[in-house]
Each structure stands twice: as C-alpha cells, then as structure tokens.
Amino acid sequence: MELNNIIAQLPYSKPFLFVDELLQVDENGITGTYTYKEDLDFYEGHFKDNPVTPGVILTETMAQIGMVCLGIFLLKEKFNKDTVVAFTSADMQFLKAVYPNEKVTVTSQKLFFRFGKLKCDVVMKNEAGQEVCKGILSGMITTKL
After folding, report:
1. What's the pTM?
2. Which residues, 6 or more positions from 77, have their beta carbon under 8 angstroms from its beta carbon?
3. Residue 127 carries which DSSP code?
4. CA distance 53 to 61
5. CA 20 to 30 Å from 5, out of 33, 67, 71, 139?
6. SS3 17
7. Burial of residue 78, with CB atoms counted within 10 A of its CB: 0-12 exposed, 13-18 middle, 19 or more buried
8. pLDDT tens digits, one per residue of 130-144
9. Average pLDDT over every residue of 73-82
10. CA–CA distance from 114 to each of 36, 74, 138 (Å)?
11. Which entry of 3, 33, 46, 103 is annotated as an active-site residue?
12. Is 4 a catalytic residue?
C-alpha cells in the first residue's frame, strides 16, 4: 500500500487532520510528520500572547499517525467506508512544549493488534531530535452495525 493512499483514507479533514507525510510503514510500526502551522485556531487562546500546542492536540497527532494510519495499513482492503476507528486510552508523558511552525516526527511501534484492538508505543520528537512527548495509545477498529 502506498503511503499517500493511507493518508487519503484517513477519516479526518482540515482543520482536524494532523498528518502531513508518512515516511515509513510496515507490520510493526509507522513514522510520519506534521507541522503545526501558526494560523491554527487553537493558538489564539492557548496561551494568550504565548502560543503553545495543547497536549490534547499532540495526543491526537500521535493517534492519527501512530494508530489510525498504522491500522489502515494493517487492515489493508478490509478498511472501507464502514470502518469505525475509536480512540480508547492514552498514557501520555509531556516532556517539552511544541510551538507554532514546529515540525514533529511521530514514530509508533505496534505492541499488539488482535480482536480489532491496536495498542502502540508512540514517541513524538521535534526537529532537533528531542522527545516532546511519548505514551502508550490504544484504539478499536470495528465496522458499523
């Protein structure tokens, strides 16, 4: 499966799409990037006169790249319009702030994928190669009833 095809299948669109590029994917993991553009709405109020990317957005970026994109790859042709992706849990550590116009790289390693549940160890790094956050993310991939 081509990397651009995975992004095209994501169930998100702007302004809630946090995947720019996928660099690598295989049965065990995935790596991708995203740049937080300074014109994103949440920077207006988080924080006033000192914009910082909210932790929930960092977590969402990690989930979109590290779980959903990987899940699409793992499911292959079984992923379709009736597939539902649900985020179930996150155990996150936030280590450094991420500011407007910063590009981050997300790397995810599959811990397990069975019975429609995907669990991954995910790390986000800034362009200097420093970890900005990391965690264990889980989600369910199922079909509409």
Report:
1. 0.95
2. none
3. T
4. 11
5. 139
6. coil
7. exposed
8. 999 999 999 998 777
9. 85
10. 33, 11, 12
11. 46
12. no
